[in-house]
Amino acid sequence: MTEKNYTIKDIAKLCQVGKSTVSRVLNHDPKVSEETRKKIQAVIDSVGFKPNRSARAMRGVQEPIVGIIVSKLNSSGESQTLRAMLTALYRQKITPIIVESQFDEKQVAHHLNLFKQRQVDSVVVFGFSPLSEKILQQWRGNMVVIARYFKNISCVYYDDQGAIYALMDKLYAQGHRHIGYLGIHDQDETTGRLRTQSYLNFCQQHRLSPNFVLTELDIDAGYQHCARLAQPFDALLCATTSLAVGAVKYLQEQQSMRPLAYIGQNPLLEHFVPNLISLNFGYEQAGNRAVALLLEQIHGNKTVQQQLISFQLS
């Protein structure tokens, strides 16, 4: 049986009073009689009603708070998205609580429960890890998921496979036939599994021999694992900016720099590295859209919306 999400209007109807009276009880207005307060509070307790903290906060009743669950704070892409989100939230005078899941589904469930206990009813979840829709649907408040598509949950997601294909296609058009790939472990559903699968699909379609290594999401991993790619390769594709930075360091030390493509943008790389192909994945756009969708929910629009963020190839 589906749990009912009670509103102030529902409570007022059950108590046979006006919504304003229920609001005064919730806000501890001393003008409400003790008898009325007890009557309304008893109904609130019996149905487990929890007021929408974010919506009340937007009306100036209390401090607005939004919970944000990121995968890893050292991810370049997530950091860009988070930075855009924070700017948009601060503009609305909303305070974020930021926690890290480290690609662990159980941690996501734990953080959602923690937010519930603290009466935080609006959250943004970065969905790079394999994330069950069942876990997310247990959340009864406002929610937007970033990076993953869900049919029944509002989300802002990327074209991971299309982006890798576009970069491979550009390298292929330049005449490269031995293209190495530095990717992320499959425990990362989007940056990892989906991007790697796109690389492998391109290789199969164009009869290229795959040459790839999967590793962690940081610069040192890119440096260490670039050496593990089979030789020779005449171009390199990196799944993330962090891996690209590490790979460039390795290739320059080996004096074997070659054309390199990656998802993301890094001004220093673009300034110092020749023959570089970067791709604006829309991280900042995703952050702004996620906040906009969340604000719509806070203000009463509960329509599920999915928005695909487009990328731009440089």
From TrEMBL:
Residues 6-60 form the HTH lacI-type domain. GO terms for molecular function: DNA-binding transcription factor activity; transcription cis-regulatory region binding. Keywords: DNA-binding, Transcription, Transcription regulation. The keyword DNA repair does not apply. CDD domains: HTH_LacI, PBP1_TreR-like. Pfam families: LacI, Peripla_BP_3. The keyword DNA-binding applies. InterPro entries: HTH_LacI, LacI/GalR-like_sensor, Lambda_DNA-bd_dom_sf, Peripla_BP_I. Gene3D superfamilies: 3.40.50.2300, lambda repressor-like DNA-binding domains. PROSITE patterns: HTH_LACI_2. SMART domains: HTH_LACI (SM00354). SUPFAM superfamilies: lambda repressor-like DNA-binding domains, Periplasmic binding protein-like I. PANTHER family: HTH-TYPE TRANSCRIPTIONAL REGULATOR TRER, LACI-RELATED TRANSCRIPTIONAL REPRESSOR. This is Trehalose operon repressor. It comes from Rodentibacter rarus.
